[in-house]
Amino acid sequence: MTATTESLMLPQTFKFTSAEHGAFIDGTETATGGSTIDTLDPATCRVITTIAETDNETVDRAVESAAKAFEGEWGTILPARREELLHRFADLIEENAAELAQYDALEGGKPISHVESVDLPLAVEQFRYYAGWPTKIQGATVPVSTSDTHVYTRRIPLGVVAAITPWNFPLCQAAIKLAPALAAGNTVVLKPSELTSLSSLRLAHLAIEAGLPAGTVNVVTGTGAGTGQALVSHPKVAKISFTGSEATGRHLGAEAGRSLKHISLELGGKNPHIVFADADIAKAAAYAATTAYFYSGQVCFSGSRLMVERAVLDEVLSAVEEHADALVLGHGLDRSSTMGPLSSATHREKVERYLNTVSGTGATVAFGGSRTKESGYFLEPTAIVGPADTDPVVAEEIFGPVLVIQPFDSIEELVPRANSGQYGLTAGVWTSDVRKAHTVARQLQAGTVWVNTYADYNAAAPFGGFKNSGFGKDCGPAGLDKFLDTQTVWMSLA
Ligand code: NAD
Asked: Which part of the chain is the Aldehyde dehydrogenase domain (predicted)?
């Protein structure tokens, strides 16, 4: 950690970051038998903190603690009390927002102003929204065609949930999993990414402070191949709730198939962001740049594939470049930063390998493409104009500040091209013609379509992908449903 970084930290952030952390089990942090992992500040490449690689035996203790809480206090708590506790949890996240925001800014390199204005409110909203549910989870009476019989259903929790989160939205993703899982009555073992563990550990402390019984929320830190694998293959885990890459999602899908666990997968995206010539071009271009470069493009629903009607291509490109030029690249804790670094050295190298595929394809790098600072994993906001639909920069998720821009000439040509990718997470449409907006939106193979806006998100609105972007929606009633099972009871009245 540098002296400048240290001076920007709150005293409580500094204290928590400087402490040695283990896994959080049964209401307290506990030493694990495994090795340790250094977490780096991606803006300085310096070590911020050291987390535990939780070993198999300690993962087992975490799952046993969650199983005990499920069979005990949390499993039998009255619904109204569950609601109160989830609201109290939300209160504590709000009260500790400044501190929590600093962990994600430090470890993830995100501008602190973005974490405070986007991640924190979204995390609180998840708890507030799902806190309203426990007293409303209902079964039904079933009109079976059998005489003298009464049939009803009960909606019941699944048991222990293994919640696996990615590094790009640590706090938010933890909340998106914890809030509905707990509202449904499950207990949780959370495994955050090894790059960004601190906010999840701190959340577990707040769960206890809120009054949730010990064992209801546990956190095991460590790598995917070690700690994560031990968690998802544990026989007492009933459900895997995963957000991350397509490759890991496929692996966990196979794992769930082998052990017959419930699973939901929120995976990557390469999202067509479509601008028609009749749109409000200034507004569309501002959104195009913002959603492409927000958090350096390390966002699953980044508007990373901009498809522009040919007549306005030059106008859109120059407006996007103007917005990109205005971005201030800097440290996550620096309030003047509007764009941070990439998450790691290996990730930046991966993004650069994509840029190297452009030469000789007929496409051009319109701006950006270079490293910008001596230290930190920074990369300039970049645009590639004119790649073919099958080029890797269009077909694959780059997950960096790289916007690909493609012209189109008609709706008939546009729609199959926009749907040609392997993913189906989100899409955007900009037009002043309502009929065109509806016609295109309903034909796009994307779990969410935004019209004349982009990246709106709310705990009440289902979010999740089609095709290789996964299955099982976050948010809304569907987000709760995936943490519940149905029991049918037949009673003879004869
Ligand atoms: P990743 O798949 O590398 O890792 C995600 C998590 O899985 C990490 O905690 C990792 O340690 C863990 N993991 C890896 N192997 C595992 C295993 N064998 N068993 C158990 N756990 C394992 O993904 P990432 O690089 O952290 O995140 C970026 C990806 O996440 C991108 O593809 C992005 O689009 C996606 N994402 C999707 C959404 C969404 O809502 N659809 C949201 C955020 C991020």
From this structure: 35-489
Domain residue ranges of the chain, discontinuous segments joined by +: 3-267+470-488, 272-458
Of 164, 304, 468, which is best to mutate to test ligand 1, by the most ligand atoms within 8 angstroms of its C-beta? 164
Residue type for position 38 = D
Confirm or reject CATH 3.40.309.10 for domain 272-458, answering yes or no. Answer: yes
163, 174 Cβ separation under 8 angstroms: yes
Ligand 1 center to 340 CA (angstroms): 20
Domain 3-267+470-488 belongs to what topology?
A: Aldehyde Dehydrogenase; Chain A, domain 1 (3.40.605)
User: What pTM value is reported for the model?
Assistant: 0.97
Yes or no: say if 202 and 100 are a contact pair by the CB < 8 Å rule.
Answer: yes
pLDDT digits (tens, 9 = 90+) for 216-226: 999 999 999 99
Active site residues: 266
* CB contact set of 260 (below 8 Å; sequence gap of 6+): none
SS3 state of residue 385: strand
Q: Mean pLDDT score of the chain, rounded to an integer?
A: 97
Q: Which residues line ligand 1 (CB under 6 A)?
A: 164-169, 191, 193-194, 223-225, 228-229, 232, 243-245, 248, 251, 266-269, 300, 397, 399, 425, 465
